[in-house]
Amino acid sequence: MTGQANGRITRDDVIDFVYNEARMLDEGRFSDWLELWLPDAIYWMPLDYKQDDPVGATSLLYEDNFMLRLRVERLNGERTFSQKPKSRCHHVLQRPFVDVFDPETGTFQTVTQMHYVETRLDEQQLLALTVTHDLSTSDNGLRIAGKKVELLNCDAAFGNIQLLP
Amino acid sequence: MNAAEINALIEPERVHRDVYISQDIYRLEMRHLFSNTWVFVGHDSQTPNKGDYITTQIGDQPVIMVRHSDGNIHVLYNRCPHKGTKIAIDRQGNTGKFFRCPYHAWSFKTDGCLLAIPLKKGYENTGLADSPNGKGMKSVGAVHNHRGFVFARLAEDGIDFDSFFGDSLSSLDNMVDRAPEGRLEVSGPPLRYMHQCNWKMLVENQTDTCHPMVAHESSAGTAVRIFKEMGEPQPRPAAMQIIAPFMSPYEFFEDMGIRTWPNGHGHTGVNMSIHSNYDAIPGYFDALRDAYGEDRAKAILDENRHNTVYFPNIMVKAPLAQLRNFIPLAANRTLVESYVYHPVGAPRQLTEMSAMYNRMINAPTSIVGHDDLEMYERAQEGLHAEGMEWVDVRRLYTGPEDFEAEAVENGTTERQMRNQFNAWAKFMTATMGDATSVAAQ
Ligand code: FES
Ligand SMILES: [Fe+2]
Fold first, then answer.
1. What value of ipTM does the predicted structure carry?
2. What kind of architecture, by CATH, is found in domain B188-428?
3. Which of B63, B270, B300, B337 is most buried, judged by most C-beta within 10 A?
4. CB < 8 Å to A82, chain B
């Protein structure tokens, strides 16, 4: 990964991190992907457009480390019937906006517009995403402190969304 | 099809596949079953103020639920009496004192009555005033608000609300009683999850206690394994409370018990359920005791029913203040809307628990929901296989059953599924006669 524990984080490091994360998901390297997360980070996908309360009303996802690990180990499991056969996904990213860049405190925030395609058997769906990454420096370089994925059509009725937009 | 042909699809221990895959049967369900029964429309907290409305469907019928100027809830067909234009298509809004059709500006009071037509003299001596179209927006046959839950019967005549639901209302009552102030408020929009399968598969699944440990092994079983690998930390991760009980052994589900009521209603979790062992929420019991007294508060919380099916197409979880609405769009297409309510007067933490359950289990992004949908869609496709035309529902069937009597049985029986099909045939054929043909519908 980019980003040196003791070196200075550059804007390119931050942007590369976002691209690399998407690449891991697209290549199905979910266990590697889990390593990117800080222990108390949350992956949030709101249900309501401009939702402000993630837990008092239903969200699509609001997952802590336990849930993310469960999700990944389930994807790797033998009796995961909805993943027989497996889904595949594909992210197309616009260049991330680096909205917070503070190497002193090791705090960074990016906002990235993405198109996300997920496919399985004869079905394929396209989702338009606005993804906010909160990143922090750790001993292992840049890590995810929080991720919020807003779906443009969050209020639409979906079939299964099985991987990680 | 006539009543005899409909009845021939339902046998005591098996049902013909056409009830799931035939679009002709679906159309008959919409005209008969969803017209003769009391169908859930919405919760009155979704329309708290005069003029507030939501748009939804009763079966395939577009309707508007609206709070009229006298404070009562009305349910109107969402169709302009002029040319048929839908009056509102946003999922919710406020229309003020009247609806105004966006096409030619006919306007209607919020009880549906015609208010005004522009250039009305063009209708003088045309007979419009005496025609149904001149009266305004049409109301459904009957509406009943039970402690906030609004149900409608499309048919003008038919079974009354209390006779239809009978003692099954005890589950809805327990759900409302769990609010210290005795009322619920909707908490955010529902999850909306599209299923390419027949609506009845979802309703049957609500009391299918032999599938969780199989279909959900990949989520619940993996959760239990990870928790063990972590050394069983306390307090346990939130997901463990919710997902792990799905891996309970068959004996647990047998002991849970199933109760059936007349007209297709029934519930799992008579003696206890997968919702019985949630961590206590600080301050909740105190609030209930202050409202009801110690004994009554305990009695309310001791009831931990799992899934209650209100025939034909909703399920409620009283301990979690949840409702799932299985809206039939076609023989092979069902929209599931899953709501969470806040029990007014209870700590917010309780609603957060319900919202967590909703997203972990009922969401299109849920690792539990994924495997359920996979099973339904495989069944919808598999049923087309020739050589075997019947679906089996005979688990713990011991002989002729009287569904007019309430019964409590082993929690793994398929009696509730049989109860639903008994009610299905009853309300499908109630107004059908012997010579009805699909073409005549
Ligand atoms: S269609 Fe509604 S006013 Fe003409
Ligand atoms: Fe299930």
1. 0.95
2. Alpha-Beta Complex (3.90)
3. B63
4. 370-371, 373-374
